[in-house]
Batch of 4 targets.
Target 1
Amino acid sequence: ATCDGQGHADFNFKHIPAFIKLELALPEGVDKINEVTVGTAEKAFITKGTVNLEDNGKVTCTEASNEIVLKGDIGTNADGKFVTWFATTPVDLSKKVIRITAKVNDGKTYSTSFTAGSLNLEAGKLYASLFKVSLVENNGETLAEALQNGGSVRVSDFGADKIGLAKDNPITLTKNVNLVVDGDLTIPEGSIKVGQNVVFTIIGDGI
């Protein structure tokens, strides 16, 4: 802080988070989202940490997560898009597979996966045009297909008829995947093989 001697003080703040705008397009007829998840296969997002004010606000991670979950009703803007914001500590998502999932009031889920290009989210910066994506209903995608697309995938987003995994016809993962096994569904043993240099992380029971 600085003072000009005339009773005026200037405060210079440094923001730790990066701020990101999400602009999501969903099929016609969907008018409200009540939960959005942004996930990666790796634990990229810091959930707990320390900040060293004597080292330019350096953040040291003590706990991290694969996902950022945004809850609360999100409606459409004038262009028919669903817009929301989230904040995260600085993170380099370059070349990582990112999966975005939206849940709506009727229980349906919509999602998409993509591999980021150069995407280094820096402290104190606002990113307003990086995440403009179209989501498709998960009824058109099986769990097997989602796993092959990579990113962070939840079993509970898929119905019993949309698993697409079988021991006698296993799939081979070629992209990093974080699989959250929640709900009552059980994944057949031996139905998933992991390709060379691929990181496959499982959270929960049921596999």
Target 2
Amino acid sequence: ARIISNPVSNSLSNRRIKTMSSTFAEPCSTNPHVASLQETIANDQAKVDCLIIAHNDPQMIQLLTDAMEEESVVVLPLCQAEWDTNLSQVLAWAVDAGINHILIAGHSDCVSSAPPKRLKHGQTISHSEWLFPSTDRILAGVSRCQQQLDAAKSHFANQLSNVLKSDELQNKECSDDFSLQTLFYISNGGAFLKYSVCDGTFNPLVRS
């Protein structure tokens, strides 16, 4: 897979590079992410099987590229905070470039979490409570984690909905082979959920 260095942070390097290209040629885009894609694909010699647009978490990206190592894949690390302003332009360019398989991967850490509750003045927690926390404390912690995960999933779903309704993607013509897949990564478990844009559901990613 070819992992494109982030045009803003430049925090990722290439690994397991394969040659990929497109016959698409036009003036370089003013969008830095589209420009990076244009440059990467124009400089190589083989067709791109899949474009992965993923939040820039190296661990998640490694899992994705490891699963697709036999294919010609281009990976664009794109911080999820930038999706609202950049993702629709990237997708529109990819469709025009004739890339038929696109995978978008979101991340559970892309919503700011609430800070942990602080002890009130004069309140202490005994040594036994630290070693054997009460059921109420355990349930409160689990509930807080679930609320954060639900908020991240909702944020991801809303972002995709807004992007797919954007002006850049209206009236785009796709080939019969075109497919758009969307995944959501849960960082504390290292697991992926498959998100359905049609019905808004998240389901475990299992082999069919």
Target 3
Amino acid sequence: GRLTSWEAHAGLARCDGLRHAPATRLRTGPRRARSDGSRQEGGLQGEAALLSIAEISVALAGFSSVVIALRGAGPAAWSAQDRFGLGNVLGASVGTLVGSLLPFPLSYLGWSDEVVWGITNAAVGVLILAAVGMLVFTVTKSAIPPRTPRVFWSFVASGFLVAVLLLLAALDLVVPGGPALLLFGLIWALVAAFAQLATFVLVSWSAG
């Protein structure tokens, strides 16, 4: 017999649902990396925070160059402590910039987020550990005492702790992986650079 209007409408609805079901599952499914390295939807986790930290590190390096220019005297007239402090500011700024931008090219290789954050955490952890070791070596072997010993050694101790935690996060041991500890490490580097720059500015003003 003939189909009633209700049965015809129900059949069309079922066909329409089957036709659109794969697209719905694709849109609501987990975000996956394509073969060309692009992401199907969403972006890198912590993308906005990483870009903000990169901008701050560039601004800090630029501000330190302005401070150097306003001081007037050339680097030859600076003390060993001044050169040491400004070198730390520029080094921390560049290291923070590299660490905050590193996850982006890695994500375009088509790797999973776990691999991207593992490599980035390990790289930043090694970088901080090397920087802390260089600071300790410079102070103890090169006879360049820090202007604020308590602040200096507190940053050394906290930097060593942050580096160890980042390496553990890279191996997914004890502490969870992901961008959380990376952000803490980058913020630590920015604070350390700002403290060095603030000390340089205060000493310059008091000397003037």
Target 4
Amino acid sequence: CEVFTFQILRLHGDYIMDYYIISDDNYFLLGIEALSEQINLDGSVVYLNTGTVDSRFAPASGDVVLLAVHNIITRRRIMQLPVIVRSQLLILLKRSTVLRHAHPPGPWVIPWSTPVRDMIFYLRSLGEKKMVWYPTDMREMDMFFRLSAKEPLAKISDLHALSDKSVYALRRKVSVRLGVSGCNSAVGTLFCRDILEMQMRYHIVNKI
């Protein structure tokens, strides 16, 4: 798999920020590369096929990562990499997603159908902000791990002393907060689990 890089000369303060574009779709990578003259981002832009991520992916704190991966298992593997919690992360989903406010905490999630111009706007905006994560809520995390494992709803409700309705309401609340409320329940649940896992890892690494 090839790695495409090009240099953008404009500096971001005293630090030249790197941008990583990661995908399992080579046509997507080639299409974005073809628009390189329009990107106008600070620092270097590195294009990686998912097969090269483990060996070539080394973002510094504050670098921006665009994750455009179709395969759920591959996307989860990349989201579990320890180095990724240092980055500003933008994730493309082939689902309906909504950025609820201008600078949501944690990864930003946008539809795969987002026009390239808007995608570049989000990348540039991420490069100008400091990564902020919600505090870790262990009850939410446990519930999403159990829902993802398809444990019976009655068991989850009993464990957390909640009604079935309250479990559904909490799942909806977290999905809205993370910007994936338009996903169907199975896809949304798995994706929320992966983001909550990143959130916990971020707080562990930074001892927050």
